Design the sequence.
């Protein structure tokens, strides 16, 4: 196999050498930290790599999907009223775009009118919109800073905003132009579904909010994970279908577009949720009790927050992150290996035209893989919130590490992305360990201490080394 | 050797000069306008040149000129050589930090500091180019973005706080008194005007030189250029270094103007600014991106006052719309519309 020797050398440098020089307990905890980071990097990198392999798009907005997943999950858990009042507007926008594109051919509205309509209705929908009250210190507490009925606008007003947003979407859809006729019924159905979902969310907002806030923490967490992942997947599918699809003929503009979307995502988060950082979510009950378990059995029976690993405490929640990462790695690997869809995806990575000629709807495959990759990134984001908290910068941060992972592994190679994420995670963990303990060179009185930022930036060195030695990555064949 | 041609050779020296003036009369008029603009403004507002509105507008124009050079340097990479780099902020911000650190912490004379900026820019752009040119196309965009982000992280790192000021940035860069933009804004205005003209003519000259032809050849058909014996790596690296140098000088002057250098100069937002200015003005036209820079700087200033922080979101949405709907920039879209208006025979294919 290509790349065996460098891989063995790097693995030895990252696992073997520290195992020799460090005490066993330190080595184990650094390894576990590395695996935690690796799991998160993998969730971002795998989607990035699959999307590139299949459709040659590098999605610079992938980190943003990770971040949006995290923010949406956090909001479902802590501040559902924000989501219940804002999400219907965007659902209406999506529905409007869908209806507009289906009817564009029949109506042929002048572009000037639809353009003014898009901007005008869009501005009207957010006219005097008071986001600040909805966000209100980040979370809804029963009888909190601003009670829910005061923070929310009257139902009728929000419905009016929703209508304006739908009309804006309609104008946008008219401008974008028609869908293909065979997709027509699906477009109608999907748009109607979006609209219905928005209306239901908005009309039941008091009920849904109370139900979420009164549920036990575990159920809320599960809801957050589900909502974040589904929203990420839906957003990815929407992005591919409406924004990226028109640009397959112009690959450079695709990249420019996704970079712009990543910027828009960060600014959107800043506007809606504020520029500050948020504290981590409460952990589910299995990882929440303030005790130190000495064995796995004790942890599972008592739900301790940390576990004794060879004499050093290790936060149990990180084991969940590792578990999710490994499960997704194995699950997607099996899906790609054994299912018909997986076989079609792998074949399309090799030779897209041939697969298309065999009658497999490659376009739909594109949307599906894009949605799946986005959902994976968003899942990573939600799962990371009890561990890292939230900040508008987290998207780019994880995108950077995922880039380094896919460059190491080789673009478009699923196993390569996993291996790359593993290596970057380990390197980060050892880097973090080194900068806190300090690096003592022989002949120096005191060790040099750095901040973790140095460890974050220095993963770029691995990327540089790989680019110099093997530009196509350890496993890759494709260099774009 | 035969460039001038026989017909022009027969003309006398004076008439060649007159021809030259007639050919470039719009540009020359523009140049005269830019030179006289501070005094024109002071006449319009009825205030002295160095105070009030004229002074404020000079500041805005200085900023436009610097961003125009930054956009120009990006167009050399993206438009002329066909390199899609997402790490241009590294050069702009790098230049700002180098001159700031040298002036503030090492009390270097200004000219030495500017020389150091050039050397630094050549070094760092050579390094970035050498690494990223190992791969191609969108892959290169990814590598350059990763390198620039690493620099951004380092600029915010607490370890170098005494030099870079970490996340607060480098504040209060001491600018020599004779060039202080707060005291002698007019001087600074002419310095940047000289800078933008020099950068433009240098870039135009280079693009029209044999080297520039090879850049275009590499962009259009790499295999053919290789077959003719040109090394793609060497020529692209040259483009990287020249572009990086111009961007770093623009960044350095920007630092002198604001007397600070902040991590946001190194962030991906700065790269997106370069991209948008280039796209709006028209890729591969050199002067287009400069006008794009002017448009965006002025619009950005007005909208920033009107919308506050929401402006950044609108800026991003505007960028997305330009990428989706105006692949040839606003100027290109206007030209196309005009061509269509004149008659279907002149309508050009997109």
Sequence:
């Amino acid at each position: 196999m290509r790349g065996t020797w460098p891989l063995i050398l790097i693995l030895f440098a990252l696992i073997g050498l520290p195992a020799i020089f460090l005490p066993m307990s330190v080595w184990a905890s650094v390894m576990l930290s590395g695996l935690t980071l690796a799991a998160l990097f993998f969730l971002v990198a795998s989607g990035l790599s699959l999307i590139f392999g299949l459709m040659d798009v590098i999605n610079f907005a992938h980190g943003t999907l990770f971040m949006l997943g995290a923010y949406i999950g956090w909001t479902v858990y802590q501040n559902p009223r924000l989501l219940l009042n804002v999400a219907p507007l965007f659902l209406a926008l999506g529905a409007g775009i869908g209806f507009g594109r289906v009817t564009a051919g029949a109506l042929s509205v002048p572009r000037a009118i639809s353009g003014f309509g898009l901007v005008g209705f869009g501005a009207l929908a957010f006219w005097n919109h008071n986001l600040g009250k909805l966000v209100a210190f980040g979370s809804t507490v029963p009888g909190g800073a601003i009670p829910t009925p005061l923070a929310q606008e009257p139902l009728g007003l929000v419905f009016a905003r929703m209508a304006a947003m739908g009309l804006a979407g309609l104008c946008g859809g008219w401008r974008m132009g028609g869908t293909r006729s065979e997709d027509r019924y699906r477009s109608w159905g999907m748009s109607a579904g979006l609209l219905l979902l928005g209306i239901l969310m908005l009309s039941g907002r008091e009920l849904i909010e109370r139900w979420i806030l009164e549920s036990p923490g575990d159920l809320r967490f599960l809801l957050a994970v589900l909502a974040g992942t589904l929203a990420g997947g839906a957003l990815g599918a929407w992005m591919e279908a409406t924004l990226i699809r028109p640009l397959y003929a112009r690959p450079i503009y695709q990249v420019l577009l996704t970079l712009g979307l990543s910027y828009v995502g960060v600014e959107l988060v800043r506007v809606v949720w504020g520029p500050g950082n948020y504290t981590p979510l409460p952990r589910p009950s299995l990882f929440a009790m303030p005790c130190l378990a000495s064995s796995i059995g004790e942890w599972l029976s008592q739900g301790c927050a940390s576990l004794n690993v060879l004499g050093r405490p290790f936060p149990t929640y990180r084991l969940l992150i590792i578990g999710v990462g490994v499960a997704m790695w194995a699950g997607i690997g099996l899906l790609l290996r054994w299912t018909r869809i997986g076989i079609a995806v792998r074949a399309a990575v090799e030779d897209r035209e041939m697969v298309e000629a065999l009658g497999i709807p490659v376009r739909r495959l594109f949307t599906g893989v894009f949605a799946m990759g986005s959902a994976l990134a968003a899942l990573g984001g939600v799962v990371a919130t009890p561990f890292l908290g939230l900040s508008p910068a987290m998207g780019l941060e994880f995108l950077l590490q995922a880039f380094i992972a896919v460059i190491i592994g080789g673009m478009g190679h699923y196993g390569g992305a996993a291996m790359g994420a593993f290596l970057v995670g380990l390197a980060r963990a050892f880097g973090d360990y080194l900068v806190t303990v300090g690096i003592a060179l022989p002949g120096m009185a005191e060790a040099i201490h750095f901040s973790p930022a140095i460890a974050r930036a220095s993963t770029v060195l691995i990327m540089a080394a790989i680019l110099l030695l093997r530009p196509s990555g350890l496993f890759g064949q494709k260099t774009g | 050797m035969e460039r001038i041609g026989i017909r022009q050779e027969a003309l006398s020296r004076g008439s060649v000069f007159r021809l030259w003036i007639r050919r470039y009369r719009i540009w020359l008029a523009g140049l005269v306008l830019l030179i006289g603009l501070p005094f024109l403004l002071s006449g319009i507002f009825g205030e002295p040149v160095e105070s009030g509105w004229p002074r404020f507008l000079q500041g805005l124009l200085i900023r436009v000129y610097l961003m125009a050079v930054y956009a120009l340097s990006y167009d050399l990479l993206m438009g002329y050589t066909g390199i899609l780099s997402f790490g241009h902020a590294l050069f702009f911000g790098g230049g700002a930090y180098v001159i700031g650190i040298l002036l503030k912490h090492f009390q270097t004379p200004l000219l030495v500091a500017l020389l150091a900026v050039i050397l630094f820019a050549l070094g760092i752009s050579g390094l970035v180019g050498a690494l990223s040119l190992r791969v191609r196309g969108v892959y290169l965009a990814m590598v350059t973005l990763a390198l620039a982000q690493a620099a951004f992280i380092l600029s915010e790192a607490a370890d170098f706080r005494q030099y870079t000021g970490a996340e607060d940035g480098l504040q209060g860069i001491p600018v020599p008194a004779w060039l202080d933009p707060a005291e002698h804004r007019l001087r600074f205005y002419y310095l940047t005007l000289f800078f933008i003209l020099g950068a433009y003519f240098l870039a135009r000259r280079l693009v029209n030189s044999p080297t520039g032809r090879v850049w275009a050849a590499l962009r259009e058909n790499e295999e053919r250029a290789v077959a003719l014996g040109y090394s793609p790596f060497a020529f692209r690296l040259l483009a990287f270094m020249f572009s990086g140098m111009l961007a770093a000088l623009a960044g350095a002057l920007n630092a002198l103007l604001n007397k600070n250098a902040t991590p946001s100069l190194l962030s991906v937002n700065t790269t997106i600014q370069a991209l948008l200015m280039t796209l709006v003005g028209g890729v591969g036209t050199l002067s287009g991106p400069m006008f794009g820079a002017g448009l965006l700087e002025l619009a950005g200033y007005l909208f920033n006052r009107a919308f506050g922080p929401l402006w950044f979101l609108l800026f991003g949405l505007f960028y997305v719309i330009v990428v989706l709907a105006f692949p040839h920039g606003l100027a290109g879209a206007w030209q196309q519309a005009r061509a269509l208006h004149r008659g279907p025979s002149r309508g050009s294919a997109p």
